[in-house]
Amino acid sequence: MATSKTIAVILFLTTLVASSNAAKKATTRPLAPAILIFGDSSVDTGNNNYLPDANFKSNHIPYGVDLPGKAASGRFSNGKLYCDIIASKLHIKELVPPFLQPNLSDTEIVTGVNFASAGSGYDDQTVLLTKAIPIAYQPTMLKSYITRLKGIVGKKKAMEIINGAIVIVSAGTNDFILNYYDFPSRTQEYPKVSDYQNFVLKRLEKFVKELYNLGCRKMSVGGLSPMGCLPIQITSKLSRGISRRCIKSENKDAVLYNRKLQKLLPAIEASLPGSKILYANVYDPMMDMIKHPAKYGFKETKIGCCGTGGLSDMCNSGSKLCSNHSEYMFFDSIHPSLATYTYLAGSSYATLSKLLDA
Known about the structure:
This protein is mainly α. The protein has helices at about 1-30, 80-90, 105-110, 125-130, 140-155, 155-165, 175-180, 195-215, 230-235, 250-270, 285-290, 340-350, and strands spanning about 35-40, 165-170, 220, 275-280. Strands 1-2-3-4 form a four-stranded parallel β-sheet, sandwiched between helices. The radius of gyration is 22 Å and the shape is globular.
Protein backbone atom coordinates (compact mmCIF):
# COMPACT_ATOMS: atom_id res chain seq x y z
CA MET A 1 0.00 0.00 0.00
CA ALA A 2 2.78 2.40 0.98
CA THR A 3 4.57 1.65 -2.28
CA SER A 4 1.41 2.43 -4.28
CA LYS A 5 0.98 5.73 -2.48
CA THR A 6 4.60 6.61 -3.10
CA ILE A 7 4.26 5.86 -6.79
CA ALA A 8 1.09 7.92 -6.96
CA VAL A 9 2.78 10.89 -5.28
CA ILE A 10 5.77 10.62 -7.63
CA LEU A 11 3.48 10.50 -10.68
CA PHE A 12 1.55 13.51 -9.38
CA LEU A 13 4.69 15.53 -8.78
CA THR A 14 6.09 14.55 -12.18
CA THR A 15 2.88 15.67 -13.88
CA LEU A 16 2.90 18.91 -11.87
CA VAL A 17 6.49 19.71 -12.86
CA ALA A 18 5.81 18.85 -16.50
CA SER A 19 2.75 21.11 -16.53
CA SER A 20 4.72 23.91 -14.89
CA ASN A 21 7.52 23.61 -17.45
CA ALA A 22 5.01 23.57 -20.30
CA ALA A 23 3.32 26.69 -18.94
CA LYS A 24 6.67 28.43 -18.50
CA LYS A 25 7.67 27.53 -22.04
CA ALA A 26 4.37 28.86 -23.36
CA THR A 27 4.78 32.19 -21.57
CA THR A 28 8.34 32.66 -22.80
CA ARG A 29 7.67 31.67 -26.41
CA PRO A 30 8.46 34.63 -28.74
CA LEU A 31 5.31 36.62 -29.50
CA ALA A 32 6.75 37.66 -32.87
CA PRO A 33 9.44 36.08 -35.06
CA ALA A 34 11.70 39.14 -35.05
CA ILE A 35 12.03 42.81 -34.23
CA LEU A 36 13.41 45.44 -36.64
CA ILE A 37 14.38 48.95 -35.52
CA PHE A 38 14.77 52.14 -37.57
CA GLY A 39 15.43 55.73 -36.55
CA ASP A 40 17.79 57.95 -34.58
CA SER A 41 19.62 57.94 -31.22
CA SER A 42 16.43 57.20 -29.31
CA VAL A 43 16.71 53.64 -30.65
CA ASP A 44 20.31 53.34 -31.97
CA THR A 45 21.89 50.40 -30.12
CA GLY A 46 25.37 50.96 -31.53
CA ASN A 47 25.48 51.43 -35.30
CA ASN A 48 27.32 54.73 -34.93
CA ASN A 49 30.19 52.85 -33.27
CA TYR A 50 31.08 51.63 -36.76
CA LEU A 51 30.80 55.00 -38.54
CA PRO A 52 34.24 56.67 -38.44
CA ASP A 53 32.86 60.14 -39.24
CA ALA A 54 29.72 60.08 -37.07
CA ASN A 55 29.60 63.09 -34.75
CA PHE A 56 27.48 61.41 -32.08
CA LYS A 57 28.74 58.27 -30.35
CA SER A 58 28.13 56.80 -26.92
CA ASN A 59 30.66 53.97 -26.88
CA HIS A 60 32.32 55.40 -23.78
CA ILE A 61 31.60 55.65 -20.08
CA PRO A 62 29.35 56.55 -18.34
CA TYR A 63 26.91 55.38 -21.03
CA GLY A 64 25.81 51.82 -20.36
CA VAL A 65 26.72 52.03 -16.68
CA ASP A 66 23.60 50.02 -15.77
CA LEU A 67 24.00 47.40 -18.49
CA PRO A 68 25.46 43.99 -17.58
CA GLY A 69 29.20 44.47 -17.18
CA LYS A 70 28.69 48.25 -17.29
CA ALA A 71 29.35 48.05 -21.03
CA ALA A 72 29.24 51.23 -23.11
CA SER A 73 27.60 49.54 -26.09
CA GLY A 74 26.70 52.64 -28.09
CA ARG A 75 23.29 53.15 -26.50
CA PHE A 76 22.59 56.75 -25.50
CA SER A 77 21.44 55.96 -21.97
CA ASN A 78 22.59 54.33 -18.76
CA GLY A 79 21.00 51.01 -19.71
CA LYS A 80 18.59 49.42 -22.16
CA LEU A 81 16.73 51.52 -24.70
CA TYR A 82 13.00 51.46 -25.35
CA CYS A 83 13.42 49.02 -28.24
CA ASP A 84 15.44 46.58 -26.10
CA ILE A 85 12.74 46.58 -23.42
CA ILE A 86 10.02 45.96 -26.01
CA ALA A 87 12.06 43.09 -27.50
CA SER A 88 12.30 41.57 -24.03
CA LYS A 89 8.57 41.98 -23.39
CA LEU A 90 7.93 40.16 -26.66
CA HIS A 91 10.27 37.36 -25.52
CA ILE A 92 12.37 37.83 -28.65
CA LYS A 93 15.71 38.84 -27.11
CA GLU A 94 17.12 40.97 -24.30
CA LEU A 95 19.21 43.31 -26.43
CA VAL A 96 18.72 44.19 -30.11
CA PRO A 97 22.12 44.29 -31.84
CA PRO A 98 23.15 46.95 -34.36
CA PHE A 99 23.19 45.66 -37.93
CA LEU A 100 26.68 47.08 -38.52
CA GLN A 101 28.14 45.02 -35.67
CA PRO A 102 30.71 42.63 -37.13
CA ASN A 103 30.26 38.87 -36.87
CA LEU A 104 26.55 38.86 -36.02
CA SER A 105 25.41 35.29 -35.40
CA ASP A 106 22.74 33.62 -37.51
CA THR A 107 20.48 33.57 -34.45
CA GLU A 108 20.81 37.32 -34.02
CA ILE A 109 20.02 37.86 -37.70
CA VAL A 110 16.97 35.59 -37.63
CA THR A 111 15.44 37.30 -34.57
CA GLY A 112 16.02 40.85 -35.79
CA VAL A 113 18.49 43.72 -35.71
CA ASN A 114 18.73 47.48 -35.45
CA PHE A 115 19.31 49.90 -38.37
CA ALA A 116 18.99 53.20 -36.44
CA SER A 117 21.71 55.83 -36.32
CA ALA A 118 22.21 58.59 -33.75
CA GLY A 119 21.77 61.99 -35.35
CA SER A 120 19.57 60.74 -38.17
CA GLY A 121 16.33 62.23 -39.45
CA TYR A 122 13.71 62.03 -42.18
CA ASP A 123 15.17 65.17 -43.74
CA ASP A 124 18.42 64.27 -45.55
CA GLN A 125 19.81 67.68 -44.63
CA THR A 126 19.89 66.64 -40.97
CA VAL A 127 22.76 64.21 -41.50
CA LEU A 128 24.92 66.86 -43.17
CA LEU A 129 25.63 68.06 -39.64
CA THR A 130 25.69 64.73 -37.82
CA LYS A 131 27.24 62.37 -40.41
CA ALA A 132 24.71 59.74 -39.37
CA ILE A 133 23.03 57.12 -41.54
CA PRO A 134 20.06 58.88 -43.18
CA ILE A 135 16.63 57.45 -42.52
CA ALA A 136 16.27 57.26 -46.30
CA TYR A 137 19.24 54.85 -46.48
CA GLN A 138 18.07 52.51 -43.73
CA PRO A 139 15.78 50.54 -46.10
CA THR A 140 18.89 49.81 -48.18
CA MET A 141 20.42 48.28 -45.07
CA LEU A 142 17.22 46.26 -44.65
CA LYS A 143 17.70 44.88 -48.17
CA SER A 144 21.17 43.64 -47.20
CA TYR A 145 19.71 42.12 -44.05
CA ILE A 146 17.02 40.29 -46.01
CA THR A 147 19.63 38.89 -48.38
CA ARG A 148 21.56 37.40 -45.46
CA LEU A 149 18.35 36.19 -43.83
CA LYS A 150 17.39 34.33 -47.01
CA GLY A 151 20.81 32.68 -46.99
CA ILE A 152 20.12 31.36 -43.49
CA VAL A 153 16.48 30.24 -43.59
CA GLY A 154 15.54 30.29 -47.29
CA LYS A 155 13.48 32.79 -49.29
CA LYS A 156 10.02 31.67 -48.13
CA LYS A 157 10.82 31.55 -44.42
CA ALA A 158 12.73 34.84 -44.64
CA MET A 159 9.70 36.68 -45.98
CA GLU A 160 7.50 35.08 -43.34
CA ILE A 161 9.85 36.51 -40.72
CA ILE A 162 9.84 39.98 -42.31
CA ASN A 163 6.04 39.92 -42.69
CA GLY A 164 5.61 38.94 -39.04
CA ALA A 165 8.34 41.11 -37.54
CA ILE A 166 7.47 43.97 -35.20
CA VAL A 167 8.91 47.13 -36.74
CA ILE A 168 9.69 50.13 -34.55
CA VAL A 169 10.36 53.55 -36.10
CA SER A 170 11.52 56.46 -33.95
CA ALA A 171 12.79 59.71 -35.50
CA GLY A 172 11.96 63.33 -36.21
CA THR A 173 13.37 65.22 -33.24
CA ASN A 174 16.72 65.90 -34.92
CA ASP A 175 15.00 67.33 -37.98
CA PHE A 176 13.37 70.09 -35.95
CA ILE A 177 16.17 70.79 -33.47
CA LEU A 178 18.98 70.77 -36.00
CA ASN A 179 17.23 72.25 -39.04
CA TYR A 180 14.63 74.56 -37.57
CA TYR A 181 15.32 75.63 -33.98
CA ASP A 182 19.02 75.63 -33.14
CA PHE A 183 20.47 75.77 -36.66
CA PRO A 184 17.62 77.26 -38.74
CA SER A 185 18.82 76.11 -42.15
CA ARG A 186 15.29 75.22 -43.29
CA THR A 187 13.44 78.33 -42.13
CA GLN A 188 14.04 80.26 -45.35
CA GLU A 189 12.55 77.48 -47.47
CA TYR A 190 9.82 76.78 -44.91
CA PRO A 191 9.06 80.05 -43.05
CA LYS A 192 6.16 78.41 -41.23
CA VAL A 193 6.97 75.43 -39.02
CA SER A 194 3.70 73.81 -40.16
CA ASP A 195 5.07 73.72 -43.72
CA TYR A 196 8.28 72.06 -42.55
CA GLN A 197 6.19 69.56 -40.58
CA ASN A 198 4.34 68.65 -43.77
CA PHE A 199 7.65 68.17 -45.57
CA VAL A 200 8.97 65.86 -42.83
CA LEU A 201 5.72 63.89 -42.82
CA LYS A 202 5.94 63.35 -46.58
CA ARG A 203 9.44 61.96 -46.07
CA LEU A 204 8.09 59.74 -43.31
CA GLU A 205 5.32 58.46 -45.56
CA LYS A 206 7.80 57.60 -48.30
CA PHE A 207 9.98 55.76 -45.78
CA VAL A 208 7.10 53.69 -44.38
CA LYS A 209 6.03 52.70 -47.89
CA GLU A 210 9.58 51.60 -48.68
CA LEU A 211 9.56 49.34 -45.65
CA TYR A 212 6.21 47.93 -46.77
CA ASN A 213 7.55 47.23 -50.26
CA LEU A 214 10.37 45.22 -48.69
CA GLY A 215 7.90 43.09 -46.74
CA CYS A 216 7.31 44.89 -43.43
CA ARG A 217 3.68 44.75 -42.36
CA LYS A 218 3.49 45.45 -38.61
CA MET A 219 4.82 48.90 -37.78
CA SER A 220 4.86 51.24 -34.80
CA VAL A 221 5.76 54.82 -35.73
CA GLY A 222 6.72 57.18 -32.94
CA GLY A 223 5.63 60.77 -32.64
CA LEU A 224 7.69 63.63 -31.23
CA SER A 225 8.48 63.99 -27.54
CA PRO A 226 8.05 67.31 -25.71
CA MET A 227 11.07 68.77 -27.52
CA GLY A 228 10.91 72.01 -25.59
CA CYS A 229 11.53 70.10 -22.36
CA LEU A 230 14.75 68.45 -23.46
CA PRO A 231 17.52 69.72 -21.15
CA ILE A 232 19.60 70.86 -24.12
CA GLN A 233 16.73 72.98 -25.46
CA ILE A 234 16.04 74.50 -22.06
CA THR A 235 19.71 75.39 -21.70
CA SER A 236 20.02 76.86 -25.20
CA LYS A 237 17.06 79.20 -24.59
CA LEU A 238 17.88 79.98 -20.96
CA SER A 239 18.04 83.65 -20.02
CA ARG A 240 20.12 84.87 -17.11
CA GLY A 241 18.13 84.99 -13.90
CA ILE A 242 15.29 82.88 -15.31
CA SER A 243 14.61 79.44 -13.84
CA ARG A 244 14.87 76.38 -16.08
CA ARG A 245 11.57 75.75 -17.82
CA CYS A 246 10.26 74.12 -20.98
CA ILE A 247 10.06 76.00 -24.28
CA LYS A 248 6.31 76.20 -24.82
CA SER A 249 6.49 77.05 -28.53
CA GLU A 250 8.55 73.95 -29.34
CA ASN A 251 6.17 71.73 -27.37
CA LYS A 252 3.24 73.30 -29.19
CA ASP A 253 4.93 72.45 -32.50
CA ALA A 254 5.41 68.84 -31.35
CA VAL A 255 1.72 68.55 -30.46
CA LEU A 256 0.67 69.83 -33.90
CA TYR A 257 3.09 67.47 -35.67
CA ASN A 258 1.79 64.52 -33.65
CA ARG A 259 -1.81 65.34 -34.52
CA LYS A 260 -0.91 65.36 -38.20
CA LEU A 261 0.95 62.07 -37.85
CA GLN A 262 -2.01 60.45 -36.09
CA LYS A 263 -4.21 61.38 -39.06
CA LEU A 264 -1.60 60.35 -41.63
CA LEU A 265 -0.83 56.84 -40.40
CA PRO A 266 -4.37 55.40 -40.87
CA ALA A 267 -4.37 56.83 -44.41
CA ILE A 268 -1.05 55.16 -45.15
CA GLU A 269 -2.32 51.90 -43.67
CA ALA A 270 -5.45 52.05 -45.83
CA SER A 271 -3.31 52.38 -48.95
CA LEU A 272 -1.14 49.36 -48.10
CA PRO A 273 -3.10 46.07 -48.13
CA GLY A 274 -2.34 43.78 -45.20
CA SER A 275 -0.47 46.41 -43.21
CA LYS A 276 -1.00 47.44 -39.60
CA ILE A 277 0.59 50.80 -38.75
CA LEU A 278 0.19 52.25 -35.28
CA TYR A 279 1.06 55.60 -33.73
CA ALA A 280 3.38 55.43 -30.71
CA ASN A 281 2.58 58.22 -28.28
CA VAL A 282 5.66 59.35 -26.36
CA TYR A 283 4.60 62.97 -25.84
CA ASP A 284 1.82 62.44 -23.30
CA PRO A 285 3.65 59.93 -21.07
CA MET A 286 6.78 62.10 -20.99
CA MET A 287 4.79 65.25 -20.27
CA ASP A 288 3.08 63.44 -17.40
CA MET A 289 6.51 62.56 -16.00
CA ILE A 290 7.52 66.22 -16.21
CA LYS A 291 4.32 67.44 -14.52
CA HIS A 292 4.15 64.68 -11.89
CA PRO A 293 7.74 63.52 -11.32
CA ALA A 294 7.11 62.06 -7.85
CA LYS A 295 4.64 59.58 -9.33
CA TYR A 296 7.54 58.04 -11.24
CA GLY A 297 10.17 58.38 -8.53
CA PHE A 298 11.91 61.27 -10.31
CA LYS A 299 13.57 64.13 -8.46
CA GLU A 300 14.95 65.87 -11.56
CA THR A 301 13.34 66.32 -14.98
CA LYS A 302 15.10 69.39 -16.42
CA ILE A 303 18.77 68.39 -16.16
CA GLY A 304 20.40 65.16 -17.28
CA CYS A 305 22.09 62.79 -14.83
CA CYS A 306 25.30 63.15 -16.84
CA GLY A 307 26.71 66.57 -17.75
CA THR A 308 25.25 70.02 -17.26
CA GLY A 309 22.77 70.05 -20.12
CA GLY A 310 24.77 72.50 -22.19
CA LEU A 311 26.16 72.16 -25.69
CA SER A 312 29.71 72.10 -24.34
CA ASP A 313 29.07 69.25 -21.91
CA MET A 314 26.93 66.63 -23.65
CA CYS A 315 28.12 63.71 -21.49
CA ASN A 316 31.60 62.25 -21.55
CA SER A 317 33.97 60.30 -19.33
CA GLY A 318 34.87 63.45 -17.41
CA SER A 319 31.31 64.70 -16.90
CA LYS A 320 29.71 64.91 -13.48
CA LEU A 321 27.38 61.94 -12.91
CA CYS A 322 24.43 61.84 -10.54
CA SER A 323 24.47 59.24 -7.78
CA ASN A 324 21.00 57.77 -8.36
CA HIS A 325 20.29 57.32 -12.08
CA SER A 326 16.67 56.25 -11.56
CA GLU A 327 15.81 59.63 -10.00
CA TYR A 328 16.57 61.43 -13.25
CA MET A 329 14.18 61.50 -16.19
CA PHE A 330 17.06 62.20 -18.60
CA PHE A 331 20.45 60.53 -18.57
CA ASP A 332 22.17 63.23 -20.64
CA SER A 333 21.03 66.54 -22.10
CA ILE A 334 18.89 64.85 -24.77
CA HIS A 335 18.22 61.20 -24.02
CA PRO A 336 15.93 59.56 -21.46
CA SER A 337 17.25 57.39 -18.66
CA LEU A 338 16.60 53.66 -18.36
CA ALA A 339 13.85 54.45 -15.86
CA THR A 340 12.08 56.67 -18.40
CA TYR A 341 12.44 54.14 -21.21
CA THR A 342 11.02 51.47 -18.91
CA TYR A 343 7.94 53.57 -18.20
CA LEU A 344 7.52 54.42 -21.90
CA ALA A 345 7.73 50.76 -22.90
CA GLY A 346 5.17 49.87 -20.27
CA SER A 347 2.74 52.59 -21.30
CA SER A 348 2.97 51.76 -25.02
CA TYR A 349 2.98 47.97 -24.83
CA ALA A 350 -0.81 47.61 -24.77
CA THR A 351 -1.03 49.56 -28.03
CA LEU A 352 1.97 47.79 -29.53
CA SER A 353 0.47 44.39 -28.73
CA LYS A 354 -2.28 45.12 -31.24
CA LEU A 355 0.30 44.43 -33.92
CA LEU A 356 0.52 40.84 -32.68
CA ASP A 357 -3.06 40.21 -33.72
CA ALA A 358 -2.67 41.77 -37.14
